[in-house]
């Protein structure tokens, strides 16, 4: 049984850690995959072991066959790891033999319409029952990877990278952020627990940017602190107050360029880091990507990668049984 390749190798142990709050580990946690697939199957089959009333009534449990996982549109593949797990769990629930899966495409690979991604051979009951769940997950992940690849391709050579956000489908964040990596993007913080993000409401609650940053440093000294800024003045205030990096929100391109230049002029002075990471966000579109990157920001964060990407249309086609002799 072959295994789909992962989108990126892990960085070498002597590579410097990035200061931006990124997570670039290539794989998905197997325990997360198992739990997520189990919940998805419960939705479709009912509480375990569940049932597929159509398939189990019309297909003998002894029938075997082969199905092809096929791309019905051009795009970038991600989430193939779920295919084996979905078929494994369905076979286990029904007490049937496992499906053998042979992958002929890898996560992160650009594929054309009609491309076979994997061949699945085993009990037909398992193939048909597993179909929708594995397609839902793999199509969703591949759609995110496809959208991300468009941004990564547009930013190629600019020195800026595309980031995702927390605007993910509840319960599928790990899969969608994995898909961003497969598409050539970079993950931002995984949640509220790993990086501090000071927004306007936090400033109001704390009394000032400095007070908010100081409170975070005292309470959670191990985390990086990012501050949202809408103006050049706010950006300079945040840097002077000790922010590790800035989220420059909804700035017109000229203002963004002015802000980047002003922050760069402060780098390495009066306790300001030698390199302040700068991230543009808000009102970003693909046709503006290179223009925004040209201001000198390090990152463009795009919520649409996960909250608005259409699925990549995938299908599971059962092959006709060979004629009997």
TrEMBL record:
Known catalytic reactions: nicotinate beta-D-ribonucleotide + CO2 + diphosphate = quinolinate + 5-phospho-alpha-D-ribose 1-diphosphate + 2 H(+)
Pfam families associated with the record: QRPTase_C (PF01729), QRPTase_N (PF02749)
EC numbers: 2.4.2.19
Domain annotation Quinolinate phosphoribosyl transferase N-terminal: ranges: 52-142
Quinolinate phosphoribosyl transferase C-terminal domain residues: 144-317
NAD recorded as keyword: no
This protein's record includes keyword Ligase: no
InterPro entries xref list: Aldolase_TIM (IPR013785), NadC (IPR004393), NadC/ModD (IPR027277), Nicotinate_pribotase-like_C (IPR036068), Quinolinate_PRibosylTase_N_sf (IPR037128), Quinolinate_PRibosylTrfase_C (IPR002638), Quinolinate_PRibosylTrfase_N (IPR022412)
Pathway where it operates: Cofactor biosynthesis; NAD(+) biosynthesis; nicotinate D-ribonucleotide from quinolinate: step 1/1
Region (Disordered): 1-29
Alphabetized UniProt keyword annotations: Glycosyltransferase, Pyridine nucleotide biosynthesis, Transferase
Gene Ontology MF, one: nicotinate-nucleotide diphosphorylase (carboxylating) activity
Biased composition range(s): Pro residues: 1-10
Job of this protein: Involved in the catabolism of quinolinic acid (QA).
Family indicated by similarity: Belongs to the NadC/ModD family.
Protein name: nicotinate-nucleotide diphosphorylase (carboxylating)
Organism of origin: Cellulosimicrobium composti
